[in-house]
Specification:
Shape of chain A: globular
Largest sheet of chain A: 2 strands, antiparallel
Strand content of chain A: under 5%
Number of helices of chain B: 1
Number of strands of chain B: 11
Radius of gyration of chain A: 23 Å
Helix content of chain B: 10-25%
Order of helices and strands of chain A: EHHHHHHHHHHHHHHHEH
Radius of gyration of chain B: 24 Å
Number of strands of chain A: 2
Oligomer: heterodimer
Low-confidence stretches of chain B: 1-5
Strand content of chain B: 35-45%
CATH superfamily of the largest domain in chain B: Cupredoxins -  blue copper proteins
Order of helices and strands of chain B: HEEEEEEEEEEE
CATH architecture of the largest domain in chain B: Sandwich
Distance between the termini of chain B: 70 Å
Helix content of chain A: 55-70%
Mean pLDDT of chain B: 92
Mean pLDDT of chain A: 95
Largest sheet of chain B: 6 strands, mixed
CATH class of the largest domain in chain B: Mainly Beta
CATH topology of the largest domain in chain B: Immunoglobulin-like
Largest interface: A-B, 82 and 76 residues
Chain lengths: ~575, ~180
């Protein structure tokens, strides 16, 4: 059983909207399927099993040690940037239309934004597949990629902005039409996420348009690598919240309904989201704790602000667990923890999101260590870090998106989920692989293993890492099997001829709240004070350092190809 | 301040259990913040800070970077080590065909100065808190004490191109 079926849809999307959302999911899942090929290849390489030479037929320029980095770049770009951004904009489109119960204000605007993202993806894919942009998904200058890589990324980001403008205008119209009503929580949550993204991506826009493209076009002789890092991480950490908040929206506003209960507190759910808007951006220096060009005092301030953003995450933990417990007890669940068994574990969509939440608890605990100023020294740039973000973006986010897809694809296609039992299995397999993989990655990270490195050929690997490297390989391979189950289930569901019985319909799960949303204080539905506070906090936390670094710019680093120690070579 | 349709002020309703949770969450985060502060500013476990800007194109022509390696400041007590990160080795090169060694007596205070002449690199000495980026145009600096004799690898922890996986070196700590 996957999500209830109802005979009268609450608000029926048009065919054109459904297909528009479907295209988002199509590109998202395709990117995930391709990008994930490299996951087990990297994991196996760590254990000394190098399959890259056997895959030369896949890509024209796929050879030697560079294959690892080319694959790693594709893995990062396709999984962390493309799968997420396409899925999120598609999911947001559905949530906005369905929960505001009105069409997009200017459908053409969203369509222009979306197809701009697709063009960007294709443009960036050319150098990526040709090994002319193997600079990893952080593309730290003065490593230099083919200009098409940067132009493609710009199109993807600007396309996502334009889709965002479509949502803002839609919300604006809805508020004019419904002056007495509070914005439904889910619509608020996903649109707030797009607003946060708009603010956060100013950093990466400044980096690419202001520093990288002038260097790549040859207008200036070089670049300031330290400033480019500061711009990058202005966007880099909120990027994580851009991935995470749609999953949170589902955990707060959809999962309780799927589990047979209600949202425990609508007000606190809203408060948590406003706090994420406020706190997601002004803490990027915690990614730069070991940078030479950022004063220690500013790193310390951002460390404290990062603890601050831990607060809405802890709020989320309480509210989501309380909502699930309420649902489980309604289903007859008993005992202090025994109620957990009463949750609908037979529903693939629910199981995926519950397992995502469990993995995210470990991710959150590890994240506290990352955020901790000096504790961070033992783990910075080690395999602890990818071990950590596979629990966040590759678990909390990706597994939740699996769960969402298990109702979303039937909803927009009108076709039943193919093999619902396999859907349950897919999440458990992925979960098991992730536990092994991420535990091993964290462990060798603490022993000092560097990330982004084909450890299978590194000369300094001590024997004590070997057992853990083997676990990395085993876990990575198991995760991939779970992920491929998901891809196949979604592909067959979408392309099968079978349709849902006449009159039957898989609805979007929208949870009611235990408290009446209209009793929430009005400041939880006002944009202006929160937006002003957000901008002010960013100016306080970033302004002085940004001014210092921008006015102290020294564009003395010429560009380098990752394959040559000669500048421009 | 907001008011409901009936004119009275609407306050945020919080369940008593959740109120307790919120207090505990804030307390835990404050304890973490205080611990980090004590470790950083009283025990001196510090992260790198702004040191010096340099020009990566000409740095190899000027002292001390034209002659990187170990500098004895006070024999047996205080040493500086200058290392240049390059695609794809640390200069002076201590592995696998060394052109120099980095030797320090146990118990001495050692300050590492590292910068890059080309792209971004990482620098992490295994078993210590010395861990920073080597960014072209900036000098990274951290100080440590090796109490146990033996050899300690320092490895490049940031992707820097084709030869990244073999970029490392060794500090020898003598009795």
């Amino acid at each position: 059983m996957v999500t209830e079926t109802t005979r009268t849809p609450v608000y029926e999307l048009t065919k054109s909207d459904k297909s528009f959302i479907g295209w988002h999911i199509f590109f998202a899942v395709t990117a995930l399927a391709v990008g994930s090929i490299f996951g087990p290849l990297q994991a196996l390489q760590h254990a000394g099993i190098d399959l890259y030479p056997d895959l030369n037929f896949l890509f024209i320029e796929f050879n030697g040690v560079n294959a690892y980095y080319q694959g790693l770049t594709l893995h990062g770009v396709l999984n962390a940037l493309i799968w997420t951004t396409f899925f999120i904009t598609g999911f947001t489109t559905l949530v906005v239309i369905r929960t505001l119960k009105r069409p997009l204000a200017i459908p053409l605007l969203n369509r222009v934004g979306f197809w701009m993202m697709v063009v960007g993806l294709v443009v960036a894919a050319v150098p990526l597949l040709g090994d002319n942009a193997s600079v990893l998904y952080t593309f730290y200058p003065p490593l230099e990629a083919d200009v098409l890589f940067y132009l493609g990324l710009v199109l993807v980001v600007v396309g996502s902005w334009i889709e965002g403008y479509g949502f803002y205008i839609t919300l604006y119209r809805w508020r004019k039409e419904n002056p007495a009503e509070k914005t439904p929580f889910l619509a608020l949550a996903v649109i707030l996420n797009m607003v946060m993204w708009q603010i956060a991506t100013i950093g990466i826009a400044a980096e690419i348009l202001g520093l990288i493209l002038p260097m790549t076009f040859g207008w200036v002789g070089g670049i300031d690598p330290q400033l480019s890092r500061t711009f990058f991480w202005f966007t880099g950490h909120p990027l994580v919240y851009f991935w995470l908040l749609p999953a949170y929206a589902s955990w707060y506003g959809m999962l309780p309904k799927q589990a047979g209960g209600k949202l425990f507190s609508d007000s606190l759910a809203r408060l948590a989201f406003w706090l994420f808007l406020l706190l997601s951006v002004p803490l990027g220096f915690h990614h730069q704790f070991v940078d030479p060009g950022v004063p220690a005092g500013w790193k310390f301030i951002h460390s404290l602000l990062t603890f601050g953003v831990g607060f809405p995450s802890l709020l989320t933990l309480f509210t989501v667990v309380a909502s699930l417990e309420y649902a489980a007890r309604r289903r007859g669940g008993k005992g202090l923890f025994g109620w957990i068994r009463a949750l609908p574990w037979g529903d693939g969509s629910v199981t995926a999101q519950l397992l995502a939440g469990i993995l995210f608890i470990f991710g959150g605990i590890g994240g506290v260590a990352n955020a901790s100023y000096n504790v961070n020294l033992v783990l910075h740039n080690t395999t602890w870090v990818p071990g950590h973000f596979h629990l966040t973006v590759a678990s909390a986010v990706t597994l939740s998106f699996f769960g969402i897809s298990y109702w979303l694809v039937p909803h927009i296609t009108g076709k039943p989920l193919w093999r619902p039992k396999l859907a349950v299995v897919s999440s458990w397999v992925y979960f098991a692989g992730m536990l092994i993989f991420s535990n091993a990655m964290h462990t060798i990270g603490l022993l000092g293993a560097p990330r982004r490195t084909p450890l299978g050929l590194a000369p300094y690997v001590p024997d004590e890492w070997n057992g853990h490297l083997f676990r990395v390989a085993v876990g990575g391979a198991i995760m991939w099997i779970g992920l491929m189950m998901f891809v196949v289930i979604i592909a067959v569901t979408a392309w099968q001829r079978k349709r849902l019985p006449e009159g039957e319909h898989i609805d979007v799960p929208v949870a009611e709240s235990l408290d009446d949303p209209n009793n929430a204080p009005a400041w939880l539905d006002r944009w202006k004070p929160w937006l002003i506070a957000t901008v002010v906090l960013i100016i306080l936390a970033y302004g002085p350092q940004l001014i210092d670094q921008i006015f102290g710019i020294e564009s003395t680093s010429p560009g380098f190809s990752p394959q040559s120690p000669v500048p421009g070579g | 301040m907001s008011t409901s349709e009936h004119g009275e002020k609407v306050k945020l309703h919080i369940d008593p259990t959740e109120r307790g949770w919120i207090r505990a969450a804030i307390l835990v985060l404050v304890v973490f913040a205080i611990s980090v502060t004590i470790a950083g500013f009283m025990l001196g476990i510090q992260v790198p800070t702004e040191e010096q800007r340099v020009d990566p194109r000409t740095i190899e022509n000027e002292l001390p970077w034209s002659d990187p390696g170990v500098r004895e400041i006070v024999a047996g007590e205080k040493y500086d080590v200058y290392l240049l990160a390059k695609m794809w080795f640390f200069d002076p090169n201590t592995v696998p065909e060394p052109d120099a060694t980095v030797e320090i007596p146990a118990g001495a205070e050692v300050t590492f100065y590292v910068t890059s002449v080309d792209v971004q690199h990482g620098f992490k000495i295994q078993g210590t808190n010395v861990n920073f980026m080597a960014v072209p145009g900036e000098v990274s600096k951290l100080t440590t004490v090796f109490n146990e004799p033996g050899s300690y690898d320092y490895i490049c922890t940031e992707f820097c191109g084709t030869g990244h996986a073999s970029m490392y070196g060794t500090v020898n700590i003598t009795e």
